[in-house]
Design goal:
Length: 184
């Protein structure tokens, strides 16, 4: 299996003038958010491919790949969801609280229709904004409060850190600096 995934914010705001020339319109905050789309390419030998247009984020890559590999993840803790299933959650929160979904996009407290870019009623974005806020809070809690240390699924065997060393042993400074077998 081969997977290629781009990086977010490949086009920074200092390129707005040039991008306006390329796409033929002013780069508003909404247009800038649309420019942050990142493709993911997945090639699975022996599987007929196709193009899937879904709203997703980096957190969705792992569950998608595990399902393609036939690994059951129903008991896994996941922030994302399989991009190839009907149940995929298509709301992508940005770190600053903005979000994109297939129906609505919220940028700087303004609610837009995702397809047209026209301004929508603020209430239309509230459920998606709440979902995005909750997902960001969960992610922050996991990271900043180190909550994974409490996750011990059935059959889990913790590693012994003493079994692993990331420092080379029994290598003299001369060998390390000059390479093995090279003495100066």
């Amino acid at each position: 299996m081969v997977v290629m995934y781009g990086d977010h914010y490949g086009i920074t705001e200092n390129h707005n003038e040039a991008m306006a020339e390329v796409i033929g319109k002013e780069i508003t905050s909404f247009e800038y958010a649309k420019l942050q789309k990142v493709p993911v390419f997945i090639h699975v030998p022996g599987v007929d491919g196709g193009i899937v247009h879904k709203v997703g984020g980096q957190v969705d890559v792992r569950p998608t790949l595990l399902h393609l590999l036939g690994i059951d993840t129903k008991n896994h803790l996941e922030m994302g969801s399989d991009l190839l299933t009907e149940k995929h959650r298509e709301v992508v929160p940005f770190r600053n609280g903005n979000f994109i979904s297939p129906e609505y996009t919220q940028i700087e407290e303004t609610c837009y229709f995702t397809i047209t870019g026209e301004i929508a009623e603020a209430d239309a974005c509230k459920p998606f904004a709440n979902q995005a806020k909750n997902e960001l809070e969960m992610s922050d809690n996991i990271v900043y409060k180190d909550l994974l240390r409490f996750y011990k699924p059935e059959g889990f065997v913790p590693i012994n850190r003493n079994d692993y060393s990331y420092v080379k042993k029994d290598v003299s400074f001369k060998e390390e600096r000059n390479g093995p077998g090279i003495q100066k």
